[in-house]
Design goal:
8-stranded mixed sheet, globular, about 260 residues, alpha/beta, single chain
């Protein structure tokens, strides 16, 4: 009888474990009196203190459907690599906003914080990545929160305004007037290691943005890797997230 009970209990435990495969789940967070929606990738085997990755999408994925941000960059890659070992937080910037806006930056950090608490994440293993507008946002967050992230992978992002739309606030905020913004960001991010990616023929965010940021970090003696894909236009995130050593490099760093 005891053996039968033990077998049934083990089967129930196994059934419970198998009932929760790796998946994406919707979440909400309240920031400054507004409710925002975001997605979370939850690994099949969530460790006691998992690593947590924050991903910031590009301008084409803005909205309020909590779905568009799943169509480019890291989320499609995750759908093909459901054995990914970390929790991934995937917020969505509202229409006509930028990740460099203070409100959106606060929302991104709030979704990360709520996820760290929900999954009891390891605060020594928080990671940052983003593409295009999300690359700009990643530089912003790295500068504003230099003691938060263990490492960052920033793809086809930039620091200064693109000059094609005066109404957009797409630039890293905070650099004092008269200072070089690339040097300022390089100093502000502190000891955060960064791997920068950019297409060599990017017609949307000039490659020079990442070249200058890399040069500023190298000059400061910071830990930085730089990958430029010759002949590649703006969609360099496909190559970047396919880099075989990307996550090995990221997860080798801890705070």
């Amino acid at each position: 009888m005891l053996r039968t009970l033990a077998f049934v209990t083990a089967a129930m435990v196994a059934g419970t474990a198998s009932a929760a495969p790796a998946r994406f789940a919707e979440r909400t967070v309240d920031v400054h009196g507004k409710t925002y929606r975001y997605q979370v990738f939850i690994p099949a085997d969530v460790k006691k203190h998992p690593a947590v990755v924050l991903f910031l999408h590009g301008s084409g994925e803005r909205g309020s459907d909590n779905q568009k941000q799943m169509t480019q960059g890291l989320p499609p890659w995750l759908k093909e690599h459901m054995d990914f070992p970390a929790v991934v937080v995937i917020p969505q910037a509202p229409d006509d906003t930028e990740w460099t806006d203070p409100a959106d930056a606060d929302y991104a950090m709030a979704s990360l914080e709520k996820s760290v608490k929900e999954f009891n994440g390891d605060r020594k293993r928080l990671y940052l990545t983003g593409l295009s507008m999300g690359g700009y946002g990643s530089w912003q967050l790295a500068a504003d929160h230099p003691d938060t992230f263990a490492a960052a992978a920033i793809i086809c992002g930039g620091i200064t305004t693109l000059g094609d739309d005066e109404d957009r606030q797409l630039f890293v905020h905070g650099a004092p007037e008269g200072t070089d913004p690339f040097t300022w960001v390089a100093q502000k991010i502190g000891k955060t290691p960064v791997w920068i990616f950019h297409g060599g023929d990017d017609h949307t965010v000039p490659t020079e943005q990442s070249r200058k940021m890399n040069a500023a970090l190298v000059k400061r003696g910071a830990e930085v890797k730089y990958s430029e894909y010759a002949g590649v236009n703006h969609g360099s995130w496909q190559r970047a997230y396919a880099e075989p050593t990307l996550w090995t490099w990221m997860f080798a760093h801890t705070r």
